[in-house]
Design brief:
It is built from 14 helices and eleven strands. The chain is of the alpha/beta class. It has a seven-stranded mixed β-sheet, with helices on both faces.
Length: 414
C-alpha cells in the first residue's frame, strides 16, 4: 500500500487563487492615477473625440443648424461666398504668410473667421494678437449655469480645482475701436466681475466680415465644452451666432480647417530626400556615388553559387610545334604523313585559287612534270614517298625534291 504525502499549502489552488486575486485588486485600487483629463492627442481638431479635441463643437454646431464641413486637403478657402465661417483652431502646422493673406482677404470680402491662438504664426502676427504668459479664471455667470441639472460626473475635471483657467488675448498693437467680449476673465474668486489681464475671446469687424480670436484653445476643447456648469458651450454658441450675423446674408456654413491640423498629405523626410537626390545636381552626384558603391559591394560580396572558372587550353606556338611534330613523326616512322604535309604546304604556296587546291596530289605532280620536264625525277621521288615508307636517311632527298619543285614552279616562265 503506497503512502500519500499531503500537499504543501502554497501548491493548493483553493489557497493561492484568492491570494493572487486579492493582490491584483489591491494594486488596481492603490495605483496612482492622473487627476486631470489632459491625455491623448493635443490637437484641437474636429476629427478627435478625445478630451483635447474639438468634436463636441463640431457636433453641437451641426445640431444647431449650421452646415458643418471639414477642409482636409485645402489650406485656404477655395471660393469666397460671404456665407462661410472658417474655424482655424490652434493650427498644429502654422499657416504661411501667403495662406494668412488669403484668409484675411476672404474675411474682408464677407466671410468670417474663428481663430484660436496656439503658437505664434503669420496669421496671428497679421491680426496683431497673441496671449499673455499667465492665465486668469473665467468669470462664473450663475445665470448661465442655472439651467444645468444635478448629476454625478465620474470623469476627472480638466482643471483639478474645478475652475476654468484661460490665457487672455494680448494685443501687439492698438486694438480695434469696437471689440465684442465673449469670455471675460477675473483675477480671483470674487463673485463680482473684477477684470484680469484681458478677455479670453474677443470679436471685431474686418472689412465686410468678422473675426473672433480665442486666446486659449482650452476654451473649445471637448472636456471643457461638455461641462455644463462652466458655460463654455454657451460662449462657443454666442461666438458662432455673432459670426453668423453682420453680413449681407447669414453665414450658415462652418468650415473646420483640418489641413493645418495635419490631416492632409504633408512633406515628409523621405519625399524631401528623394526630391533632393533626383532634382539637385549635388543630390544626383551623391546618388551616383551610392550606386557605384553598391555595385562594388555586390562585386566583392560572397555569392550563393560559386562561379566556374573558364577552362583555358594552353596551345604551343606554331614554330614550337614544328620540332614536336617532327620528333613525333620520326618516332612512329610516319614518312608518308611527313611527305603529305610537306606537299600540302608546297601547294599552298604555289597554287592560287580554290579550284587548283582541290586537285588531287597525283594530278598536281603530273601537271608539274608536264610543265617542267626536268622535274620528272623529283616527282618520281615524291610519289614513291607518298605511297611507300622510306628510310630516315632518304627523307632529305624528299625535302630536296620538294624544294626543287617549288623553286622551279615559282621562277620558271609561264
Amino acid at each position: 500500500m503506497t503512502e500519500t504525502h499531503p500537499k504543501e499549502w502554497w501548491t493548493r489552488p483553493s489557497v493561492m487563487l484568492p491570494i493572487v486575486a486579492t493582490v491584483a485588486l489591491a494594486v488596481a485600487l492603490l495605483s496612482p492615477q492622473a487627476v486631470a483629463g489632459r491625455f491623448g492627442d493635443s490637437r484641437l481638431s474636429s476629427h478627435l473625440a478625445g478630451s483635447n479635441g474639438a468634436r463636441v463643437l463640431f457636433d453641437m454646431a451641426r445640431r444647431l443648424g449650421w452646415q458643418v464641413v471639414r477642409r482636409d486637403s485645402q489650406p485656404t478657402p477655395v471660393t469666397v461666398t460671404g456665407r462661410t465661417i472658417h474655424a482655424l483652431l490652434a493650427p498644429a502646422i502654422p499657416p504661411t504668410r501667403a495662406e494668412a493673406h488669403e484668409y484675411l482677404e476672404a474675411v474682408r470680402r464677407g466671410d468670417a473667421l474663428l481663430f484660436a491662438l496656439g503658437t505664434r504664426n503669420p496669421l496671428s502676427d497679421s491680426l496683431g494678437v497673441t496671449h499673455f504668459a499667465r492665465g486668469d479664471m473665467l468669470y462664473e455667470n450663475t445665470a448661465l449655469s442655472a439651467g444645468c441639472g444635478r448629476h454625478i460626473d465620474l470623469a476627472p475635471p480638466f482643471w483639478p480645482d474645478g475652475r476654468v483657467h484661460l490665457q487672455a488675448v494680448r494685443w501687439l498693437r492698438e486694438p480695434p475701436a469696437a471689440l465684442k467680449t465673449f469670455a471675460p476673465l477675473v483675477r480671483d474668486d470674487a463673485k463680482s466681475l473684477v477684470r484680469g489681464n484681458g478677455d479670453g475671446a474677443v470679436g471685431f469687424a474686418l472689412g465686410q466680415g468678422r473675426v473672433v480670436v480665442v486666446g486659449d484653445p482650452d476654451l473649445l476643447r471637448n472636456d471643457v465644452v461638455r461641462h455644463c456648469a462652466w458655460g463654455t458651450d454657451l460662449i462657443a454658441v454666442d461666438m458662432l451666432e455673432w459670426l453668423r450675423a453682420g453680413g449681407a446674408a447669414p453665414r450658415t456654413t462652418l468650415a473646420f480647417d483640418e489641413y493645418h491640423q495635419g490631416y492632409a498629405a504633408q512633406p515628409t523626410v523621405v519625399g524631401i530626400t528623394a526630391s533632393f537626390l533626383v532634382q539637385h545636381p549635388v543630390g544626383r552626384t551623391i546618388l551616383q556615388l551610392a550606386f557605384a558603391a553598391l555595385v562594388l559591394l555586390f562585386a566583392v560580396s560572397p555569392r550563393a553559387i560559386k562561379p566556374q572558372d573558364v577552362e583555358r587550353i594552353e596551345r604551343r606556338d606554331p614554330l614550337e610545334q614544328v620540332d614536336a611534330l617532327a620528333q613525333a613523326y620520326e618516332q612512329v616512322q610516319a614518312t608518308r604523313t611527313i611527305t603529305s604535309r610537306l606537299l600540302h604546304g608546297l601547294r599552298w604556296r604555289v597554287e592560287r585559287g580554290a579550284t587548283a587546291r582541290a586537285m588531287p596530289d597525283d594530278a598536281f605532280l603530273a601537271a608539274a612534270a608536264a610543265r617542267a620536264p626536268e622535274l620528272n625525277d623529283d616527282v618520281r621521288i615524291i610519289r614513291r614517298a607518298l605511297n611507300d615508307p622510306v628510310k630516315g636517311a632518304d627523307l632529305p632527298a624528299v625535302g630536296a625534291a620538294l624544294r626543287h619543285i617549288e623553286h622551279t614552279l615559282t621562277t620558271s616562265p609561264k
